[in-house]
Design a protein that fits this description.
Layout (H helix, E strand, L loop, with lengths): L2 E6 L14 H18 L3 E4 L11 H11 L4 E8 L5 H15 L3 E6 L9 H4 L10 H16 L5 E2 L2 H4 L4 E2 L12 E4 L3 H10 L2 E4 L2 E2 L7 H19 L7 E9 L3 H7 L2 H4 L4 E5 L2 E5 L2 E4 L1 H9 L2 H5 L2 E6 L5 H15 L6
Parallel strand pairs: 1-2, 1-14, 2-3, 3-4, 4-7, 7-8, 8-10, 10-13, 10-14
Antiparallel strand pairs: 5-6, 9-12, 11-12
Length: 338
């Protein structure tokens, strides 16, 4: 059965007419939307993480608040930029949130995305080692984080305080969390690496390569290569795969007002450049619910993944997005096997 989650970018802006004018608005409304989503029948609430921007940046307080106010909903990130993270502090935070939620944390991590500052991670105290790129540093941080949440010994015990020698793990630990770490992969080669590492695969609405094929076809190939590499690596547990899509059912005057004119313009992929490399950006799915159901059912990557993350326009507020998600669950998701 396919899971349906929402993915929020967490923007706020102090502009006329905006219901999300401050960081407090963004955070509190995120909790409200998660509660509404659980009642509607959505399976997960996922949040982007961006630094030095008017968007949600520190995910664990928000995820803990949602965990305490919900009982069934998966809570996740898409993605935490590991260049910025202290792996051991993050291990403590992640385990605490997972324990509060009863094992519902689905933690997406990666090297991060293009941002508004130059080497912002250095301001956080993280500098690549000699000969190491920022992407290498992100993977190094991730390896240390994953070892920590798995209970690896980290620091030498003080026998005077503990009565023992050897290395102690960070605390708390949450059983099962190591199998719920996802990596945001932007290419087929990265997808293979993710499988070899034993992490779940997140594939968003863009890939940092272009073969001329539509995004869904290229993503479906990425997913196939991931699963082949997973089998070859011999991991024992079953992997998860998610893809993100912009999906807006036009169900009332407000949705048509905001998105009606974009229905045709966003109906095809776009090719552009990110960090000097060619990238393919996925189309938006905007239109009448029955047509969206048919189109998404033909999306090769949506069919191949077990989880569809619907990117919501969070700056339009809780009521708008609750209606959007209700239409997705009621009118679109059944055609996808939800």
């Amino acid at each position: 059965m396919k899971r349906i989650g929402f993915l929020s970018f967490g923007h706020w802006a102090d502009v006329p007419g905006s219901p999300v004018r401050t960081a407090a608005d963004s955070l509190l409304q995120a909790v409200e939307l998660a509660e509404a989503a659980e009642e509607i029948g959505v399976d997960g609430a996922w949040f982007r993480v961006h630094h030095f921007a008017p968007q949600q940046a520190s995910p664990f307080p928000l995820l803990a608040a949602i965990a305490a106010r919900t009982s069934r909903l998966e809570i996740g990130t898409g993605v935490v930029d590991m260049r910025y993270e202290n792996p051991l502090h993050m291990a403590e935070d992640a385990a605490a949130v997972d324990l509060i939620s009863g094992g519902r944390l689905q933690l997406g991590v990666s090297r991060g995305s293009p941002e508004s500052v130059l080497a912002g991670y250095e301001a956080f105290g993280h500098v690549p080692e000699p000969g190491e790129s920022d992407a290498d540093m992100a993977r190094r941080h991730t390896a240390r984080f994953r070892a920590a949440i798995a209970g690896a010994g980290i620091a030498p015990a003080d026998p005077r305080a503990t009565g023992r020698a050897g290395l102690l793990p960070v605390q708390p630990l949450s059983p099962g969390l190591p199998e719920r770490i996802w990596w945001g992969a932007g290419s087929r080669a990265t997808a293979r690496w993710v499988a070899e590492q034993g992490m779940n695969l997140m594939s968003s609405t863009l890939l940092t390569e272009d073969t001329g094929d539509p995004l869904d076809v290229l993503q479906a190939e990425q997913i196939r290569l991931f699963r082949e590499a997973w089998t070859a690596a011999g991991h024992r547990h079953v992997p998860r795969v998610s893809v993100s899509r912009s999906v807006v059912p036009l169900v009332d005057d407000e949705s048509r007002h905001y998105f009606g004119l974009r229905a045709r313009a966003g109906a095809r992929d776009q090719v552009g450049t990110i960090d000097g490399a060619t990238a393919r950006f996925g189309r938006s799915y905007i239109g009448e619910p029955d047509r969206l159901a048919e189109e998404l059912a033909r999306d090769a990557a949506v069919a191949a993944a077990d989880t569809l993350l619907v990117a919501v326009p969070s700056q339009l507020g809780v009521e708008f997005n609750a209606r959007l998600l209700e239409a997705v669950v009621r009118d679109v998701a059944p055609a996808l096997g939800h």
